[in-house]
Amino acid sequence: MTRSVASAVIAVLAITCCWQPAVADPPDPKIEAAVRRSLDYLARAQTKQGYWTANQGQYRVAMTALAANAMLCEGSTTTRGRYAENIRAAVNYLVSMSQPAGLIGFKDDYHYTYGHGFSMLFLSQVYGEEEDKVRRQELKEVLVKAVEFTKNAQTSRGGWGYVSAKDGNDFDEGSTCITQVQGLRACRNAGIPVPKNVIDRAVKYISDCMTADGGVQYSIRGGGARPAISGAAIACLFNSGEQEDEMAKKLLAYCKKNIWPGGGGNTYSGHWHYMHYYYSQVMYRDEELWPKYSKQIGGEILKQQTRGGPDDGAWLQGHIGPVYVTSINSTILQLQNGFLPIYQR
């Protein structure tokens, strides 16, 4: 979530994922118990108004979308399941944050594109399952406006920054690009129109950010290849069905060398969790590598989980706050559930 997590991703290309039910892997009792404790922690941390926050009360919109999305991964919806009330409150809050121009969030938040992108991702998953006609139409209107805002926020180079191109003097960097692209892809999968030229320009941006060794650097201006950014970039390529693209093959080779197994930084860095949030989606799509990867990453994550006290079930690593890391880790641990189209094989 910080500038150094930066540069990348954006290759949603054709965006052709299908919405077929996924077959879940056999559950691991230790993982199930850890997930239950983590989601119960998030339920306790939610405010009465329906939102979550990072440290110092920051990133309300982004934390709300990430935490509620983790609850969707458990199988709960707005109408049923253990966390239905929490998810419903989160949807209400995010819908209330939809501005006339389409931004989901606060204009005075100097990182508002994070929350906007994560909200597109979360709300599109809810929209795909919504049965109430009135609420479904409301969600559709919010998402259509959100896509339009993202289109207008794109920079001249095809990327995105912490704020729109207009508000940020055309500055762009990779971590915010990632949230926009995956949010757009999720909207497209849910039936929300996404202009092809927005994706084409984003693809060009990520290509321009690649280094000779196959990694993705901080931004189009340079900064050297970063494992965290590269892991996020390859996730977007795989999500869009571009596994066989030459750019994807080169990037995947870089990631396997620098992230798998065990590389790319330590587990106490916020970038480590960010990196594996995206890279785990790639590994999950590889039925041969997933068992080994999930065993290692799951063991590493479970070792860090807090036991006892008011933070029971949370993860406290990194500087953004426990809601952020707990939402990411619980999502990683639930990929095998296969409930959300955005993460399915």
What does this structure look like?
The protein has one domain (3-343): Glycosyltransferase (Alpha/alpha barrel), CATH 1.50.10. It has twelve helices and two strands, in the order H-H-H-H-H-H-H-E-E-H-H-H-H-H. The protein is mainly alpha-helical and 345 residues long. Strands 1-2 form a two-stranded antiparallel sheet. Strand 1 and strand 2 form a beta hairpin. Helix 6 packs parallel to helix 8. It is globular. Mean pLDDT is 88; it is low at 1-23.
Sum up the structure in keywords.
single chain, 345 residues, mainly alpha, Glycosyltransferase, 2 strands, 52% helix, disordered N terminus
Count of individual beta strands: 2
User: What's the main sheet like?
Assistant: 2 strands, antiparallel
Calculate Rg over CA atoms.
18 Å
What count of helical segments does DSSP give? Answer: 12
Question: What general outline do the C-alpha atoms trace?
Answer: globular
Number of domains: 1
Supply the helix-strand structural class. Answer: mainly alpha
Could you estimate the helical fraction of the residues in percent? 40-55%
What's the pLDDT, averaged over the residues?
88
N- to C-terminal separation? 26 Å
Percentage beta strand: under 5%
Strand sequence of the main sheet, in spatial order? 1-2
CATH class equals: Mainly Alpha
The CATH architecture would be Alpha/alpha barrel
Which blocks of ≥5 consecutive residues have pLDDT under 50?
1-23
